[in-house]
Amino acid sequence: MAYDKFNILTSTAVPLPLENVDTDQIIPARFLKATERKGFGDNLFRDWRYNNDDSPKESFVLNNPIYSGKILVGGKNFGSGSSREHAAWAVYDYGFRCVVSSFFADIFRNNCLNVGVLPVQVSTEFSEQLFNAIYDDPNTEIEVNLPNQTITIVSTGAQESFEINSYKKENMLNGFDDIDYLQNIKGEIESFANGLLL
Amino acid sequence: MNKTLFDKVWDSHVVKKIEGGPDVFFIDRHFIHEVTSPVAFLGLKTRGLKVLYPERTFATADHNTPTINQHLPVQDPLSANQLKALEDNSKEYGISHWGLGDKKNGIVHVVGPENGITFPGATIVCGDSHTSTHGAFGAIAFGIGTSEVEMVLSTQCIMQPKPKKMRINVNGQLGKGVTPKDVALYIISQLTTSGATGYFVEYAGDVFESMTMEGRMTVCNLSIEMGARGGMIAPDETTFAYLKGKPLSLKGEEWNKAVAHWKTLKTDANATFDKELTFLASDIEPMITYGTNPGMGMGISKNIPDADKVEGGVATYKKSLEYMGYHENDSMIGKKIDYVFLGSCTNGRIEDFRAFASIVKGKKKADHVTAWLVPGSHEVEALIKEEGILDIITEAGFVLRQPGCSACLAMNDDKVPAGKYAVSTSNRNFEGRQGPGSRTLLASPLVAAAAAITGVVTDPRDLL
Predict the structure, then answer these.
(1) Which residues neighbour B136 within 8 Å (Cβ) at sequence distance 6 or greater?
(2) CB neighbours of residue B298 within 10 Å
(3) What is the tens place of the pLDDT at every residue in B57-76?
(4) pLDDT tens for residues B411-447?
(5) Which ipTM was obtained for this model?
(6) Any CB–CB contact under 8 A between B309 and chain A?
(7) Measuring CA to CA, which residue among B373, B375, B376 is closest to residue B423?
(8) Searching chain B, which residue's CA lies closest to the CA of residue A180?
(9) Bridge partners, B407 (sequence order)
(10) Minimum-distance CB partner of A25 among B312, B430, B437
(11) Bridge partner residues of B280 (DSSP)
(12) pTM above the 0.90 mark?
């Protein structure tokens, strides 16, 4: 599906400094039973966010009213494990448009790019600066500038550039997805397939 | 020539290169299941697209199917709805579908190879990260998201940047009681769960050369657990012997021609890798995990490492041990077990049941242990009966269930209760993976069998 265009996002951020946050934590398997892409945000981080009786766990960051925003700042190796795109849907559906980490798992990163969530990989040092800035002032704003490929802590001016391949960048800026592209080269795909043995 | 096995298969499937972007990558075989495909079909409908090559896609129901009373209607309405969607979508688009009750039904990564759908040099994807299993045949196989499932259905291609290349060599001979699962858990414990992120792995060396196809599948299956997109092993006589005569394998002259080509699928002597690691078989003992990711594993005779001796954050490590109810420097031997799970796309094949039976034969299941023995497919189930394994496990107090993913991800009713400990032959020990609050110890079928008999974590070498 085509998704919202992404250009410059300036927002407060939610800190989640744990490492190896796997997709089973982002969305547990028992919430994967839908046949439509709806309502996954309610179950984002379900078992960290809610007690068994569905009451919110106060200690979890999403239940702490002082932190909010469209940017989620995670620890190293974010999104490891299962290929479930539901994890990226849950992140999007909850309202995040950007996830920042010092290291992403491959499939999660791809899935994010395919649903309109921008994965921004930063250095370990910059990741620490981000966490410190957010903890010092939960209202601190972060600017994610896709055209310039930079992420900036607005209050301090601390900035780092991030990588994204030019094809994906163009897609995100315009809200295009891969199927739009692939449909346009179907002829080339069919002639390639005709040359295959199996 | 200076190409790796991976280069040869990858390069021959690139339809088009995009400057500064990914490759348009052609997919030979596509597996779908009930959980990650419905939204992809919905996408096709919304856009008014067709399935370009329905004969290249295969559907099987496995993730949330019950493992008892499969002849009865599925009780959970949401699961039933997904199963129905898979059946209806397959029918509408002309895709072959092995649903519940079909004798070919089973876990997607078990039935694919079993039926000869998987073949050397193929590119294979599925909306499931353990698609890496099929790399055992010298295929490039990896998991994809649902948007990509929609791409493959509609265009048989996905957009992928070519990963970097890593070779992992394990040389020497494995000791008594050391299985392919232990080799994989050992490698992951050395690399951590992100050590191979960005890479595609080739496994090489004596240990893999002498492994059966079942063992190679277990190893390649777990590639994703160190972050690799996939892992592969060069096809050889063992591969060809496994595939020959399978229902969908090529036959006659076509088979001979294919084998001649498959024999060329190996890494050239002067090809280079971005990273190369070598381990010794003699350093590997039966493994067990003690934490909440597959990298937190160790030899079963060792003690849980101190936080300051492990890579990564101390806070994350301590949170993990706290969840498990374990402490630094604890020995795992003797820890009480409540559940044992034998099955999954990692260890749900006939060889795994043979291994389990070799330990439990003539003994009795510990009274307090609940054991779920779940074959990966009906074909595995049939072999269990044919080889007399069913008699051995029944005699020892175990019950054989029906095929499916089961307690590996606990989408069906096979859930480990909160706080309980399960020795599982599956692939992930994440928090709550086997049910909210469940605690998972990943291990081989031998370690699982030993725990099922004694009721505590036990070195299987003591029972062999």
Answers:
(1) B113, B213, B216, B217, B219, B220, B232, B233, B239
(2) 19
(3) 999 999 999 999 999 999 99
(4) 999 999 999 999 999 999 999 999 999 999 999 999 9
(5) 0.96
(6) no
(7) B373
(8) B151
(9) none
(10) B430
(11) B171
(12) yes
